[in-house]
């Protein structure tokens, strides 16, 4: 496993991080229905985190909203007596309970502090290494949000903070009220609109954590071609995978299988593509079991994709026409 500096934080993070969304197991929709990550179990999730540590992974990314806090609870259980070996990143929804059209900065401050305290309790830790906004705050709330983050940092409850977004203009607005130390940016071989944003982040010395590097499974090869409809009906990705444009895209994606060879799988090629970007600090790869993390981490030690491979792969990726996974 290789390591990189996470921008101005100075933290050394593993090339591959563990995304803790799948271990949440379930997610409640706004209409009350439950969706799940098929194939996940709590016991295996804890074993997965321990195995990731053995393999050199040192950053774990969760969120208060993953399974209504269940992901964070499992993180706390798994990292008991080994907290010092990990960089914990988690996220808060800044707009929860707020009316976009009725500014209330006191409510913002209370919400951010309360959410942080709840995450600390669930994860059984005294501090969060990287605390991130899970969405863009209402514009009127930005000063109070950044003030709250700064206060939590001063109190030692968080070390660094940032936002998960591909909206560069929103980041610039937040920077008016304080520093942004990290960005979680959606980027993968199929969705490369953040290329310039990543270069800008590097110029700003902002650490970048890359989400959806496998396009929610589209780049794993598991659902290519004849297997395009194989995702279980109770999987939270099922509805999107059934969209006509996604189905058509998955049928075309086998053309990318030339990237897989005796030295690497399709998953590893897709992760390598992300790691080869100069603006990337770390790729967050979600996993549900030990086999997946064992495969993911191998991408760190592989050689970069060649220019010839990129020249052949990217036009194929551009023609896929799948629905966007990045918000």
Explain what you see.
This protein has 327 residues and is α/β, with parallel strands linked by helices. The protein has a single domain, classed as NADP-dependent oxidoreductase domain (TIM Barrel). Helix content is 35%, strand content 16%. It has 11 helices and 12 strands. It has helices spanning 42-54, 70-78, 105-122, 142-154, 168-175, 195-203, 238-241, 244-252, 266-275, 290-297, 307-319; strands at 3-5, 12-14, 16-19, 26-28, 34-36, 59-61, 87-92, 128-133, 158-164, 182-186, 207-211, 282-286. The strands form 3 sheets. It has an 8-stranded parallel barrel, surrounded by 5 helices. Strands 1-2 form a two-stranded antiparallel ribbon. A two-stranded antiparallel ribbon has the order 4-5. Helix 3 crosses helix 4 (142-154). The longest helix is centred in the middle third of the chain and has 18 residues, at 105-122. The protein starts with a strand and ends in an 8-residue tail after the last helix.
Form type: globular
Radius of gyration: 19 Å
The number of domains is 1
Q: Mind telling me the CATH class?
A: Alpha Beta
Strand content: 15-25%
**Describe the biggest sheet?**
8 strands, parallel, barrel
- The CATH homologous superfamily is called NADP-dependent oxidoreductase domain
CATH architecture level-2 label: Alpha-Beta Barrel
- The portion of residues assigned to helices is 25-40%
How would you classify the helix and strand content by structural class? Answer: alpha/beta
Q: Ranges with pLDDT <50 over ≥5 residues?
A: none
Sheet with most strands: strand arrangement: 3-6-7-8-9-10-11-12
Count the DSSP helices.
11
Distance between the termini: 30 Å
Report the order of strands and helices: EEEEEHEHEHEHEHEHEHHHEHH
């Amino acid at each position: 496993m290789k390591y990189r500096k996470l921008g101005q934080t100075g933290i050394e993070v593993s090339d591959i991080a563990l995304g803790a969304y799948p271990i949440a197991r379930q997610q409640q929709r706004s209409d009350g229905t439950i969706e799940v990550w098929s194939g996940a179990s709590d016991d295996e999730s804890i074993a997965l985190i321990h195995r990731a540590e053995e393999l050199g992974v040192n950053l774990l990314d969760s969120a208060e909203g993953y399974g209504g806090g269940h992901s964070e609870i499992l993180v706390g259980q798994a990292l008991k007596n080994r907290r010092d070996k990990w960089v914990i990143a988690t996220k808060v929804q800044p707009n929860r309970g707020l009316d976009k059209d009725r500014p209330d900065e006191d409510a913002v401050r209370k919400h951010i502090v309360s959410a942080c305290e709840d995450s600390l309790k669930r994860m059984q830790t005294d501090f969060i290494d990287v605390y991130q906004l899970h969405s863009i705050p209402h514009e009127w709330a930005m000063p109070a949000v950044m003030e709250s983050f700064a206060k939590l940092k001063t109190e030692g409850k968080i070390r660094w903070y940032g936002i998960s977004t591909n909206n560069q203009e929103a980041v610039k607005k937040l920077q008016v009220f304080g520093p942004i130390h990290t960005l979680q940016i959606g980027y993968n071989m199929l969705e490369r609109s953040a290329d310039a944003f990543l270069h800008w982040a590097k110029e700003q010395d902002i650490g970048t954590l890359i989400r959806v590097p496998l396009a929610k499974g589209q780049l794993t090869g598991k659902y290519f071609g004849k297997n395009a409809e194989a995702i279980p009906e109770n999987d939270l990705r099922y509805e999107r995978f059934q969209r006509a444009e996604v189905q058509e895209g998955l049928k075309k994606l086998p053309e990318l299988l030339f990237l897989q060879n005796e030295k690497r799988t399709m998953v590893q090629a897709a992760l390598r593509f992300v790691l080869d970007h100069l603006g990337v600090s770390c790729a967050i790869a979600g996993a549900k079991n030990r086999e997946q993390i064992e495969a993911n981490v191998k991408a760190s030690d592989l050689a970069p994709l060649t220019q010839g491979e990129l020249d052949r792969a990217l036009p194929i990726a551009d023609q896929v026409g799948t629905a966007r996974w990045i918000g």
